[in-house]
Amino acid sequence: MIKHVARKEVREIVRDGRMRLLGVIVIILALAALAFGAQQAIRAQEARDNAMERAEKQWEGQGERNPHSAAHYGTHVFAPTSVVTAIDPGVSPYLGRSVEIKAHKRSLASHSEAQDSGGSKRLGSFSVASVFLLLIPLLIIALGYGLWSRERERGTLRQVLSTGVKQSDLFWGKTLALFFVVFILLIPAALIIVGVLWGLGGGDGDTLVRLGLLALGYGVYFGIFAGLTLFASAIARTSRGALVAMVGIWGLFCLVTPRAATEVSGVLEPLPSQAELGRQVAQSLKTGLDGETDKDVFVEAKVADTLEAEGISEDALEFFADDAEAQRIKTYKDGLILKFTAEWENVIFDHYIKELDDQVAAQESVMNWVSFLSPYVAMRTLSAAFSGTDVAHHRHFTGYAETWRQGFVDSLNEAFAEKAGAQGWSYRAGPELWKNAPAFEYQPPRPTYGFDVHLLSALALLGWLLLAFVLARRAAGRVKAV
Amino acid sequence: MWRTVLGLEWKILRRDKAALGILLLFAAFVVAAAIAGGRQADSVREGLKRSQEAESIRFQGHFKELKRLEETQEAMTGQDPRDPIWMGQEGAAKIAILPPAPLAPVAVGQRDLQPQAVRLTTEDHLSSERENETAMSGPTRLMTGAFDLGFLFVFLFPLVVIALSYELLSGERERGTLAMLLSQPVSQLALVLGKAGARAIALCGVTLVFALLGLLVAGADLSGDGAWPHVALFAGILVAWALFWFAAAVLINSFGGTSARNALQLVGLWLVLIIVIPGLVHVAVDTLYPPPSTIELLHEAREATQEVEGQLRGVEGNHDRDAKAPDPKEQIALKKEIASRSEPAHEAMDVQIQARQELVDWLRFASPAIIVQLALEDVAGSGATRHQRFEEQVEATHDGFKDFFFGHVEQDKTLHSDALDDIPHLSFEEESHGALAARLLIGVFVLLLVALGLIFLALPRLRQIGRLTR
Fold this sequence. Notes:
The complex is a heterodimer. Chain A is mostly helical.
């Protein structure tokens, strides 16, 4: 029976020329978005490779220089790109792509794409994800709003029910038909997406896992809209009532809630201004996190302790004023000062950046809760997380970049302390030292990392699916024939 | 005749609970959005004020110290306000400010992406000197966009119009009241246009009143220079935008389809004009003129200046306590050299940004939604044109600022207390009201023209709506 019902519904939808057209338009848009996304991903990849190569060349070709001057000259590291961004760029256009690496300063990631593009991003985002998140639900609504109500208006529902067909059979038949049509439309698009990503070099296991998770997530997301549409169609008195209500709900989920919620998250978890953060860091660099320790006192005490532990007396310095040995000790001491200064600075940078990152994470977690108010927010969050383009992935990267910066600066300071010897500050290191600096080898987190951070959103999405189907099923059981 | 139709429709509207509900909900959204936009504008304003106050205290301190030093003639120390090098680098940094426009709460626009203040120093690239006193926005918030009047009017307002107008004619027909209405002494044309007109007047009236109310609550500065012309432009854009959508609804209704079909077609149109075309415009701009990469700029500049920069960093990265201070003239010469070498890269970038902006200016006519969005940003003083003007003026002031301090160093002069007022600073010069109005009115004109065109297309069918009663 279910099969017959489904076959009839599918035939009706397919016979309606407008629906065919609508379906084709949506698929064309999805593929256009994919082409654009792929082009952007290739460009981002090239830009990153190019920038990394140039940064490396600049670093290695900086000539002869004192190692600590080299640490001032510094270098830049770049956030990784992935072919999956061709599907969903997530928040990555609004995050810095490069981190400046230099002594005495932890820089926030900067040079975001949004800033570069002078705001034309704000005109509208156009990606496979935005087509899937915004347009396909509307397509589902357009395909499904009349499934119950139109039959009622035509009077065929009464006839069908009078033949003794079970309402549950009708429900499953209609559901199946809706899913079937949507999947017939999407499967070619999905195959093309996989093909294109494969061509871009994304054939590795991680990418496949990410794609699998995305497919699963979007399947659930579309199911939610299908369920809600069937529900509205069953309870609304008229087809236009069902349609208008569903468009309203779509607007509420996809337009109003995300914007209103991000405003609220900004009020609940406000971030400081960059200038404010800068002032706090500057103050703490002078007087410590407790506001009472003087930096110079701290560094000098540490240096004195170390010298004492190693049996080097400062008085000896005075005594051998002109001696090469004294000069060597002085250099060693300067090296220690650099080392402990960096140690002092790192504690302060870590403290403030962690605080900032935690505040941003708190905002994100507000959005995870908002997932219970809007399946759009849930899926948008998960989509970015599975594509590796969310804030959590960015934090993973900047965390590594900072750890690396500290090691990098330390290695240069050590080189100064150990090799400068009697030459002191006039010591110049050459290309060998630059080449031997620690390599920047960032490994992005595993594909399921998104679950760790956004478990709530995943639960919310499943909750929505359950709710939508319980509502649709119950409404089908009570559907009025006239 | 028109009065009868308007009056009747007004009565219907007052008793239509769904329509009233939608209007009230939208009015509530309008007030909330005005307040949210106001909060953002206030946070910018307060941040800028903090910066200005800090600057003024800093300069008062310099003035007193300079007066004292001029009397005592002490020897120069590390951070001495007489020292043009230190003053140019840090001590006398001047903050160039883009002041929030009177109707700032209307749209956040580019305000959360572009700097609202730049700290002028003798450094070459000001990019690292963005004095951002505005509270940072989380990336998710930046991606989502603000819940402001700009968003409400571009995205939701048309949906409200659709909700109020999709069944203008089809509803009467489906309820069976169309034949009755046509038996009244009204022309067929007046019936439809009168119904649409009454709804348009009600919606625009409610929206404008609540928007103004919201702006007042949000702390918009309506006494400021140009505030009322801006309000008039704002109202003009809104009315033209509403008329466009009502005209589209009248046209679609005139075909005589069912209400559901009308709704579907109008939502489809909404989708194309508001989501799809702006997205495609963004694609077109990014494909034809890829955004200039500041990362690349950084490297161009770094490579062009590598040796010179190396010498400068060599001077700066030397913490040898016994080393003598670097020669100021040498330092200045190095900085000038760096600036001149990185100049071509900066210029190429400016050209690309300009080309992109020009393309957007043209492509906005691809969708009325883009016209409205950009116009609202312009009214709120958060649009690209105003930010571009600011950048240009900052660059010019920055050149003057550098010349001032470099000139002192080159002529071996120290800073004098009288000279503090002569340090170049920026007082932002707004675009003239005429130029702004001209740009916006073109958009309004285009919207009205399209609306008229739609009505014109509908006219032949509107004259024969009697056929629909059969």
